[in-house]
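User: Just a sanity check before I run the rest of the batch. Below are the structure tokens for the first item. I only need the designed sequence back.
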């Protein structure tokens, strides 16, 4: 038997720990190791938690321990020849950018926030605007270290303990405590982005633009007006981008490699729930489409391009005190047009306003057993937590299931357990690895229990 986590560790009850969306809330006990050697798997169930940017209940272990990794944040080594950074799992993407952009290096894949940890990025196998070109986060991880339930740290990689590596990539922290990640960064000339905005008239035109294989512009995303109806259904602003060369940035800029971030604007209070409704969001969408669709080609710093919402501190407060829920799905190429049209029609029919609606193209499926991305198109929608949301999400999930798609686990807080095997066909393979490395279920989360990810 393994001992309980050291009593010398700071331990604190957290009766209302939530995901980034503010819902759901669950009781747990927090542990905050100061150093990696302070962590040992205990008899109580536990789950690691990085910076808390998972939207749902993936990083909360009710009736157990939630282990905070925020102080396990040392960068251990960097190879200037290969670009491989070795760092503890609590290191944030923001710290990496601040340190390495001035040296001419950038993240190979980044999600829509820089305030997340290396361990969290591997556990969720995050993706970015360049998935159709560069794949998911795990494809750039050369190796990692993990402590499974038996307490013996292991090195894992695509070639070493590969079953555990590919179960960990997208495994939502259930395979063990990730202690280190070695990530291969990419070379850049400047910290600027060359961007092109193109307005589209409807969903078909939006998908046609996203379908274009443009290796010179590896980043692409569509901001979609989810409240447009009729002939304008699915109208968007498609945003293509690439890292700018030295000759493309403004002459007045003396610092070609600036790793600083835009100053955050505060959201000091929760907006009343009635502020974000279909009328105010529709007005915002029309203004956004007009202003952003007319920008054409321009250059901008990397921070507002990759992380626009990071510019607003506590931006989730825009949805009110009850929080919000994000629904992100991926639909395969062959069913994407009909499936996306059905989702957008359901949103407009329901009158629920999504302030954030983002559409991206995915490349081929990776090797992670529970990794979310697969060939097709992914749509992310945010909804305020209002009455009837559960039933509405069930209808959204039904469309996704019928289209042969899946829901992103790190964003989920409401999916039903019986949908999981259909969305993630390698679930049995993942469970086999769990039975080998964690037969008694020491690593668990509210997400894994709700969806019965580990199996009976």
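Assistant: Here's the designed sequence for the first item:
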């Amino acid at each position: 038997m393994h001992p309980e986590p050291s009593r010398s560790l700071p331990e604190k009850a957290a009766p209302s720990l939530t995901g980034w969306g503010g819902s759901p809330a669950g009781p747990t006990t927090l542990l905050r190791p100061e150093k990696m050697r302070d962590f040992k798997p205990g008899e109580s169930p536990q789950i690691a938690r990085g910076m808390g940017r998972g939207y749902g209940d993936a990083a909360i272990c009710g009736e157990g321990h939630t282990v905070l990794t925020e102080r396990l944040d040392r960068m251990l080594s960097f190879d200037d020849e290969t670009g491989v950074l070795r760092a503890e799992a609590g290191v944030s993407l923001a710290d990496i950018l601040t340190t390495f952009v001035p040296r001419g290096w950038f993240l190979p894949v980044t999600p829509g926030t820089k305030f997340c940890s290396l361990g969290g990025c591997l556990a969720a196998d995050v993706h970015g605007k360049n998935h159709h070109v560069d794949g998911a986060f795990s494809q750039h991880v050369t190796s990692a270290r993990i402590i499974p339930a038996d307490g013996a740290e292991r090195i894992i990689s695509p070639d070493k303990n590969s079953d555990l590596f590919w179960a960990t990539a997208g495994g939502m922290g259930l395979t063990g405590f990730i202690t280190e990640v070695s990530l291969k960064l990419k070379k850049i000339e400047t910290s600027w982005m060359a961007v092109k905005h193109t307005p589209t008239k409807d969903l078909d035109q939006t998908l046609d633009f996203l379908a274009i294989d443009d290796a010179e512009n590896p980043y692409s995303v569509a901001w979609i007006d989810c409240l447009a109806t009729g002939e304008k259904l699915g109208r968007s602003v498609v945003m293509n981008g690439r890292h700018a060369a030295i000759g493309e940035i403004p002459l007045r800029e003396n610092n070609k490699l600036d790793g600083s971030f835009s100053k955050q604007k505060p959201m000091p209070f929760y907006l009343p729930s009635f502020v974000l409704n279909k009328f105010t969001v529709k007005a915002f969408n029309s203004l956004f489409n007009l202003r952003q669709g007319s920008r054409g080609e321009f250059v901008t710093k990397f921070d507002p391009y990759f992380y626009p919402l990071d510019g607003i501190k506590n931006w989730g407060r825009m949805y009110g005190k009850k929080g919000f829920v994000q629904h992100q799905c991926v639909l395969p190429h062959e069913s994407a047009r009909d499936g996306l049209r059905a989702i957008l029609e359901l949103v407009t029919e329901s009158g629920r306003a999504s302030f954030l609606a983002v559409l991206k193209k995915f490349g081929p499926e990776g090797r992670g057993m529970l990794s979310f991305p697969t060939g097709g198109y992914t749509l992310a929608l945010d909804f305020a937590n209002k009455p009837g949301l559960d039933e509405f999400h069930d209808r959204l999930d039904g469309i996704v299931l019928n289209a042969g798609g899946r829901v992103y686990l790190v964003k989920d807080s409401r999916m039903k357990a019986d949908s999981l095997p259909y969305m993630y066909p390698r679930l049995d393979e993942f469970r086999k690895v769990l039975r080998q490395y964690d037969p008694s279920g020491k690593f668990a989360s509210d997400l894994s229990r709700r969806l019965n990810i580990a199996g009976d």
